[in-house]
Amino acid sequence: MIEILFYILSTITLGSAALTVLSKNPIHSALWLVVSFFSLAGHYILLNSQFLGMVHIMVYSGAIMILMLFTIMLMNLNISHEVSKPFITKLVATVAFCLIGILMLSIVMRGAQTYDLQYATSGQDFQSAHVLGKILLNEYVMPFEMVAVLLLLAMIGAVLISKKDKTEKGA
Amino acid sequence: MENVIEIIGIDKYIYLSIILFCIGVFGILYRRNAIVMFMCIEIMLNSANMLLVAFSTFHQDAEGQVFVFFTMAVAAAEVAVGLAILVTIYRNIGSIDIDKLKNLKG
Amino acid sequence: MDTNVILLLLLVPLLGSLVNIFFGKKLGNGSGIIATLAVLISFIVTVVAFVQVNGTKTPIQGNLFEWIAVEKFSISFGFLLDQLSLLWLLFVTGIGTLIHLYSTSYMKGDENYGKYFGYLNLFIFFMIILVAGSNLLITFIGWEGVGLCSYLLIGFWHKNQDYNDAAKKAFIMNRIGDLGFLIGVFILAFLFHSLDYMTIKTALMSGTNHQINTWIGCAALAIFIGAIGKSAQIPLYTWLPDAMAGPTPVSALIHAATMVTAGIFLITRLNFVFDLAPLVQDTIAIVGAFTALFAASIGLVQNDIKKVLAYSTVSQLGLMFMAIGFGAYEVAVFHVITHAFFKACLFLGSGSVIHAMGGEQDMRRMGGLDKYMKVTYITFLIATAAISGFPFLSGFFSKDEILMVAFEHNKALYIIGSIASIMTAFYMFRLVFLTFKKGFRGTQEQKNHLHESPISMTLPLIVLAVLSIFGGLISWPGSSWLNQYLQPVIVKSAANHPHALGFEAYMLMGVATVGFLIGLIWAFRKYIQKAQVPQEDDKITGFHKVLYNKYYIDEIYDKLFVKPIYIIATFFRDVVEVALSGAVFGLGKIADELSLQGKKAQNGNIGLYLFAFVFGICLLLYYLFIAR
């Protein structure tokens, strides 16, 4: 049952990711990406980390994708005006895709022979929201605060960059 | 508490995340639209995230998930600033086709 | 108090110099007055200090500050006003004042009037440092400083390229000597861990260092080479005749009376070192005697009024070095002083003549000037009589003492010195007769222009002429005030063992007088009775031509030193430098070409960059996980 669920989810993830890359309209790309992210959240829940799954849906599917869609519509890019790509681009992209894929798979396969991948459960609770919250606010409280500052800076930076230059307008 | 890793095996997750990452790389090289390239970067980031979560479960250690947490925050910040830059570029050049951004020419 | 005296002495000329150099243009004629006053103040201070030291017999000493202090070795910026330096300061500042006064008229109307006086004051400042320094390094500062001022003033009319060349020649020739000086200073510093005159003197007088005599000899020789350069002896004398390119008062002050005697000052100051090096002393005597003869023989046929005086200066300096070589330092000092009087007077007189002739320096264009310039003629005649050794004038005593010392030590050098004296008498009277007697040989325009110089020019002439007459009294044979005065400074002083004024001395005086008369009558017969005028340049033949061209020394130096160095330099410039720069520029070209080609990779295509990026990651992964 779980195995079947995993394969279905994996197919959705890879398929929608591929469609994200291949669809000509940026809006379609974005929508396929949302699908991909939802399936990834499914993976998380399958891996028993429900809290992270929820956060993933909220941050990626909620915040980031909305931002992207909003930008696309702001720029009026909802129609495809990307010219057909030259053959060399397709070739290069395919070559790189194959190269890096084969390389990484071969690395993992070589590693799988040397390491014991057998799994033994201890039955301890380590990934509920309760435990995560304790870890975050005890051991990782400093990085946590730093991330808060980073997000603030990103917000200020984004506003500053996208703000229209007043003096330039006059000129 | 039943665990999916026991049933499926960590290697399947590794393969899944590699293929997802390669799709992201392919998209980066294949597409010319800057926003779609952004999306491809998100795909690559998420493949790494998923592997972190899988290994966190495999080792029964919460720190992997904490890392994913931070990665998400950084990704959010990156998207915010990156999109702001794209907006500015679009305003100046009228396009976000990266073939037209040739100011880096030496 | 002592430090204040020294500071006042030093800083007044420096201040005058700075004011004149920076504000000379605005001051106009005032700059001459300021400069003259500055030197006058120095002179007054010197007189006060002189009276004090002459009374107390103890030198004035003052350390301004510690200059260099290393472990076991320290040099203070100190000054020492003892009998020797005060004597020098007296005539440097005294004659300096007169020449400044003279210059106020002589240089009138020159566009760089202020700058001229600035340099002249700077010269006085450095000369005071040279003379009053309490250690060799301070003296070296002054030594270099006067060299600089000499250079600046020889090339003062720098629009004439010949004058610039003369200035450069003087500077470069002095550098050769300066190198010797420095080597000597280093050897002395190595031996005594100090450069202070007093310390070195005490160390040598204690007499425990006899094993270092060879080193002392080397130091003495090196310092003598320095003195050769500054005091224009063979083989470094050729700069001095060329140095006459400068304004005539400069020739009088720097190149006759003061700076060129610095070499004699230095050796006299270090007499305790030279006493330990008899071989070097012999060398000095021989070099001096030959320089005296050599320069006098060239002086016989020169036609430029200032060139004659220049060779005469070289010749007289040679006589002084001869005296030093015999260890008779006070005799040399005596001749320095009398020479300063009459040679300054002669130069200033020639300046007066040149002024009247409108810049003409060739004696063949002069003649009969005694009717127009009475004061100049009389003072010039007195100075000529003094330098030639007319009995009981200053030069008679000083030169006679040198010859007397030479007679005691070495008869051959005595004969050389006597011949040089006869030649001196001849060429000096030749100068007087050609310039002031017979009819005028210049153009009508020049004749109309002839006039006596103004009072500010004739007054120094009169003062110097009087000094030329009576200057000999400071060292009257038998009871010499000068010898007594210098006794504390000079270790082997003649005053300690006075020679009797016996028959021999009177005989030598008589011989000297006869020699003077020979020179005088020779010149009289040739230029008054036969009324000869020197031939034009292209008609000169035989040995006369060799003399007229100064034994072709300049040409020989040119062939021997200048040409080979020039050839080597050309070789380095045309071959070595081209090869080196070719290699360097070649490397640069390669890098340039590489970057030009590499630039093409940066074509701005982000897709390409990304592909390179991915490909690079693939290589990294391959290396890290598979190849290893």
From TrEMBL, chain A:
Parts of the chain that traverse the membrane: 6-23, 30-47, 53-75, 87-109, 140-161
Pfam families tied to this protein: Oxidored_q3
Major location (coarse): membrane
Location of this chain's protein in the cell: Cell membrane
Entry-linked InterPro entries: NADH_UbQ/plastoQ_OxRdtase_su6, Nuo/plastoQ_OxRdtase_6_NuoJ
Enzyme class: translocase
Family recorded in the similarity comment: Belongs to the complex I subunit 6 family.
Protein name in the entry: NADH-quinone oxidoreductase subunit J
Organism: Myroides albus
UniProtKB/TrEMBL annotation, chain B:
EC number in record: 7.1.1.-
Localization of this protein: Cell membrane; Membrane
Catalytic activity: a quinone + NADH + 5 H(+)(in) = a quinol + NAD(+) + 4 H(+)(out)
CC per GO annotation: NADH dehydrogenase complex; plasma membrane
Record flagged with keyword Cell membrane: yes
Membrane topology category: Multi-pass membrane protein
A GO biological process held by the record: ATP synthesis coupled electron transport
Transmembrane segments: 12-30, 35-55, 67-90
NCBIfam families: PRK05715.1-2, PRK05715.1-3, PRK05715.1-5
Subunit structure: NDH-1 is composed of 14 different subunits. Subunits NuoA, H, J, K, L, M, N constitute the membrane sector of the complex.
Role according to the record: NDH-1 shuttles electrons from NADH, via FMN and iron-sulfur (Fe-S) centers, to quinones in the respiratory chain. The immediate electron acceptor for the enzyme in this species is believed to be ubiquinone. Couples the redox reaction to proton translocation (for every two electrons transferred, four hydrogen ions are translocated across the cytoplasmic membrane), and thus conserves the redox energy in a proton gradient.
Similarity annotation: Belongs to the complex I subunit 4L family.
Protein name, per record: NADH-quinone oxidoreductase subunit K
Source organism (scientific name): Myroides albus
TrEMBL record, chain C:
GO biological process: ATP synthesis coupled electron transport; electron transport coupled proton transport
InterPro entries in the record: NADHpl_OxRdtase_5_subgr, ND/Mrp_TM, NU5C-like, Proton_antipo_N
Regions crossing the membrane: 6-23, 30-51, 86-104, 116-134, 140-158, 179-200, 212-229, 250-272, 284-301, 308-326, 332-354, 375-393, 413-436, 457-476, 505-524, 606-625
Pfam families (alphabetical): Proton_antipo_M, Proton_antipo_N
Domain NADH-Ubiquinone oxidoreductase (complex I) chain 5 N-terminal: 67-117
Annotated keywords: Membrane, Transmembrane, Transmembrane helix
Membrane topology designation: Multi-pass membrane protein
Domain spans labelled NADH:quinone oxidoreductase/Mrp antiporter transmembrane: 134-424
GO cellular component, one term: endomembrane system
Chief localization: membrane
Subcellular compartments: Endomembrane system; Membrane
An annotated Gene Ontology molecular function: NADH dehydrogenase (ubiquinone) activity
NCBIfam families in UniProt: NDH_I_L, PRK06590.1
Name of this protein: NADH-quinone oxidoreductase subunit L
